Inverse folding.
């Protein structure tokens, strides 16, 4: 079987140079918690990594947002599904990989520091972070992208410190999942069906949802749900979902240096050319033209 460490269409990754990591180990704040590597692998078919105890020099968080995978730790194999994450402990032999039939899409971070163990404890098995009314998954992904964007601009002291403080927040959103969700901006228990569906769309912006998926989530038949949704928003559910995806695409084009073929898989489009057609249809210009357009 083919086994790949990287090289997936649309992937992004940053590996901090050794001299930067050594500096992080000596700074008052960053020595508490720091990143050594991070990345995003969409539909990472044939992804596989294996490390010995000696090679396992950091804690490794893997957050699966789509598809399935697995990992082996202490001679025990765990299956990892969509909306689950795990953290491999430092200094332990391990291996992990993607499901051959349903390859995972993952965000991953290698981290260490004096407080790293605190954030990793208890997560050496798959842990659920499934969508719910106040799940804030989109905000967590935005936080990862902000860390990535900050480090991609270089390793100035301020960039490294800001990335570290953001990492505290990112890991805290998982360590203290209940508290993170309880502090959601939207906590109205009487939200209408359509508002719940829109929230579900935003939390699953990287997926290819169907009308059936949306209807089942809110407990209606597809026909009844589509009617209610269009009455309130003026758009069919999937057309509205695509509008949200393109809105997110505009954010990436405005505030990151990601290429179109890196943005499209983050929004559930396997084909960058199809994504460009949908973008152009909604925005009236192509993604490239949009990025070049002066705004504000």
């Amino acid at each position: 079987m083919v086994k790949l460490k990287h090289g997936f269409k649309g992937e992004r990754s940053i590996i901090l140079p050794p001299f930067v990591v050594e500096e992080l180990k000596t700074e008052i704040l960053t020595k508490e918690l720091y990143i050594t590597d991070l990345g995003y692998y969409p539909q990472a078919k044939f992804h596989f990594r294996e490390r010995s105890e000696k090679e396992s020099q950091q804690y490794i968080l893997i957050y699966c947002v789509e598809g399935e995978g697995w990992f082996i730790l202490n001679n025990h194999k765990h299956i990892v599904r969509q909306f689950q994450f795990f953290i491999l402990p430092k200094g332990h032999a391990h291996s992990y990989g993607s499901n051959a039939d349903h390859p995972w899409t993952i965000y991953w971070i290698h981290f260490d520091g004096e407080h790293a163990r605190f954030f990793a404890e208890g997560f050496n098995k798959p842990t659920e972070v499934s969508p719910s009314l106040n799940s804030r998954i989109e905000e967590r992904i935005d936080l990862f992208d902000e860390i990535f964007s900050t480090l991609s601009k270089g390793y100035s002291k301020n960039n490294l410190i800001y990335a570290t403080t953001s990492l505290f927040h990112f890991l805290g959103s998982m360590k203290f999942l209940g508290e993170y969700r309880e502090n959601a901006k939207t906590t109205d228990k009487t939200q209408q069906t359509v508002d719940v569906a829109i929230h579900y769309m935003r939390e699953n912006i990287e997926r290819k949802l169907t009308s059936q998926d949306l209807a089942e989530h809110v407990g209606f038949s597809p026909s009844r749900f589509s009617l209610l949704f269009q009455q309130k928003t003026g758009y069919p559910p999937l057309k509205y979902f695509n509008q949200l995806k393109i809105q997110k695409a505009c954010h990436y084009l405005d505030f990151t240096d990601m290429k179109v073929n890196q943005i499209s898989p983050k929004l559930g489009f396997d084909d960058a050319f199809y994504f460009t057609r949908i973008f152009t249809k909604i925005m009236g210009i192509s993604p490239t033209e949009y990025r070049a357009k002066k705004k504000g």
The radius of gyration is 20 Å. Strands lie at 12-15, 34-41, 48-51, 59-66, 69-73, 76-80, 84-88, 94-98, 105-112, 127-128. Confidence is low (pLDDT under 50) at residues 186-191.
